[in-house]
């Protein structure tokens, strides 16, 4: 069978990948626990298989030829994928914890109050949750999944499970909000507009869906009070410092107990609350968690606050 139709020896590819990555046949032999001669023979067999030279041996050390560099790029990615798949299976078989990254505001205001029930009902996950401030890459090996509000397009190299649409609204304590009910949207400028650096697009999305003048709103935001994180913004709103824009999910309990009121209801944005599963994540565990989260979100959908058209 010709080289174009067959794959070379896996041992030859392993020897080539190690030698190319380490830049040394000796180092590759040590890593693979074989002799120097064994690695050299595997590389020569690979070159014979493709009938091309993969290393330039004219100088000191090993230098990939252009064709060798092209092969190494593909082979290194393939071996990385194999390692990830094997490690993922080992973690699942050994009962490794399922690590969920979650934004601090979502963790503190929505997930933590439900965490005991989540641990009880999905105890087999051995769930470990940490706050994902700073937007860590969900592809990291120590992250099994990430919970986040995202706007499409979704990343092509991960499984993205949509849980719920994002709905946001302008909210304030009853003493403020009750004066705004049945008033035009511009009435919010009577009060300080509260903003957050972690979600600068929120007020703009609200303006786009309600029809309020975004330029005038931006000016009010500049005159208002800003906070670094959404969690602090919501605490400021609860303290009666002004009017904030907030995701309905994060203030569900505050709405139910009338600590906060949305005088103009809520609008649905293009963002979605999603569970992101990187390629190495245990898929079945992620799907079980997504089903639990979706059911829990659905159970709270009747919380106070109408939706604007």
Automatic annotation (TrEMBL):
Extract the Gene3D superfamilies matched here.
Periplasmic binding protein-like II, Winged helix-like DNA-binding domain superfamily/Winged helix DNA-binding domain
Cite the SUPFAM superfamilies for this sequence: Periplasmic binding protein-like II, Winged helix' DNA-binding domain
Tell me the GO BP annotations in alphabetical order: DNA-templated transcription
**Source organism, top-level taxon:** Bacteria
**Could you give a GO molecular-function term held by this entry?**
sequence-specific DNA binding
Determine if Cell membrane is one of this entry's keywords. Answer: no
InterPro entries noted in UniProt:
LysR-type_TF_proteobact-type (IPR058163), LysR_HTH_N (IPR000847), LysR_subst-bd (IPR005119), WH-like_DNA-bd_sf (IPR036388), WH_DNA-bd_sf (IPR036390)
Which keywords appear in this protein's UniProt record, sorted alphabetically? DNA-binding, Transcription, Transcription regulation
Q: Which family does it belong to?
A: Belongs to the LysR transcriptional regulatory family.
Protein name per the record: LysR family transcriptional regulator
């Amino acid at each position: 069978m010709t080289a174009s139709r067959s794959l070379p020896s896996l041992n030859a590819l392993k020897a080539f990948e190690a030698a190319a990555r380490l830049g040394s046949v000796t180092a590759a032999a040590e890593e693979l626990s074989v002799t120097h001669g064994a690695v050299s023979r595997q590389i020569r067999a690979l070159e014979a298989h493709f009938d091309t030279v993969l290393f330039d041996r004219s100088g000191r050390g090993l230098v990939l030829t252009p064709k060798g560099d092209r092969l190494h790029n593909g082979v290194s990615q393939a071996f990385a994928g194999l390692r990830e798949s094997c490690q993922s299976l080992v973690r699942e078989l050994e009962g490794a914890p399922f690590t969920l990254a979650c934004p601090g505001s979502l963790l503190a205001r929505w997930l933590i109050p439900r965490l005991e029930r989540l641990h009880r009902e999905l105890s087999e996950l051995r769930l470990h949750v940490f706050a994902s401030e700073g937007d860590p890459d969900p592809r990291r090996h120590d992250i099994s999944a990430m919970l986040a509000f995202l706007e499409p397009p979704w990343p092509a190299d991960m499984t993205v499970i949509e849980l719920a649409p994002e709905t946001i609204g302008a909210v304030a304590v009853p003493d403020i909000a009750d004066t705004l009910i049945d008033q035009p949207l511009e009435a919010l400028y009577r009060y300080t507009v509260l903003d957050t650096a972690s979600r600068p697009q929120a007020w703009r999305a609200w303006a786009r869906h309600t029809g309020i003048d975004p330029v005038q709103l931006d000016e009010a935001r500049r005159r208002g009070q800003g906070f670094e994180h959404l969690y602090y913004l919501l605490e400021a709103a609860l303290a009666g410092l002004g009017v904030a824009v907030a995701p309905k999910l994060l203030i569900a309990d505050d709405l139910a107990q009338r600590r906060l009121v949305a005088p103009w209801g809520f609008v649905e944005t293009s963002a979605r609350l999603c569970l992101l599963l990187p390629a190495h994540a245990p898929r079945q565990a992620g799907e079980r968690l997504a089903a639990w989260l979706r059911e829990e979100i659905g159970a709270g959908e009747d919380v106070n606050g109408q939706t604007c058209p």
